[in-house]
Amino acid sequence: RDWEEGPQSMSTGEGGSEITLDWGNTGLGGGALDATLCKGGSWQGMGESQQCVLPRLDLEIREEGQQCVLPRFDLEIGEGKDLQINEKHLLGFGSTGCVYMGQLTLGADGVVPVAVKVLSDASLNHRQLFSEARGADSMLAEFQREALILARSMHPNIVHCYGGSLRPCTSKPAFIVQELCEASLHALMYDPFLSPTVLGQLAGSSCADSSSRMSLRTGVGRLLPLRRALEVASDVASALVYLHPRVLHRDIKSANVLLSADGTAKLGDMGLSMVKPSGAAQHEVHESYEEGTIAYLAPECMCFSPSEQIILTEKVDVYSFGVLLNELVTGTRPFFGMTTPVLRVRVALGVARPELPAAAAASSLPEGLVPLIQACWAQEPENRPPATGVRAALQAMLAELKE
Predict the structure, then answer these.
(1) Which entry of 82, 251, 269, 317 is annotated as an active-site residue?
(2) SS3 of residue 397 by DSSP
(3) Residue 345 sits in a domain of what CATH number?
(4) Catalytic annotation present for 251
């Protein structure tokens, strides 16, 4: 749970054998993916095997010294047997695949609806439209990395991973099975066809009433009640506290914040995530293209030359979070209508940020909220607060609202 590298022991439960897995060689830190949990629950070299089944991770991980103990590995996912994918019900696109509705059989727990992210030709082609340098091999590596990060992330504010197949064969694509949430934050704010029942369930009646302010032409969406907006922001900040400093999400945005039936906000889509090598203060990325969503992208992520070196820290997520937090309290898409070339230059130079709440609206906000937003999107990474500080500030504001 603390993202330490090196061999970690895992127990299959009562009467089970102990398995040692070196996470340092799973592709999370740049190495090769060389181990899979295959049928029968045994770890072995990937070799030519076509499928790996991730362990069931819906039980709390217990820490015992340096061991990461999983109570049981009792879930094998096989498409057509344990898992049914409804390819006619497309839920959306992630950074590494298409997401479909599915049904998963969990033995005594019955059948549960799930979201299934599939690495398909369509998703590969979609990504290659934006970068011809990205081929099927690198997309598969990203997909595998996302699955492994999700599998290790046991937190109420991170989308739960049931398992999946990470090694595509001739007739079967790679896929990840995740919990099915009610809606994304993006849909809650901007989808004009979202059910009023779902709106009321996730955000309250006042949010449903604000649908009249929506405008596709100006990027104005529904405005969440202040307390609800801060609750969502606090949940996302909690997810970042859990991930940082070892894991960088790199694509914090409203579309990647999912809301469960009880209203809990969960961070999803780890397709662009990176794990920092042990002891490293930052990532040095030597690439000629940018990763992430441009409206939420930190200035240091902007790339203007093929030879330019991009240095990443967890503060890139804090910047994106600041943009998201402002979006929550204004109910408006960030930088709506601004062209990408202009946006890249203006953000990189520090002369453009999303429009803050108007003075009249700001007067009704907690005193420290606007300064917190501005601190999160500070031009220099070292001037941005850590995720722990952001969460503490938001929780203090929520406590004041409840008094």
Answers:
(1) 251
(2) helix
(3) 1.10.510.10
(4) yes
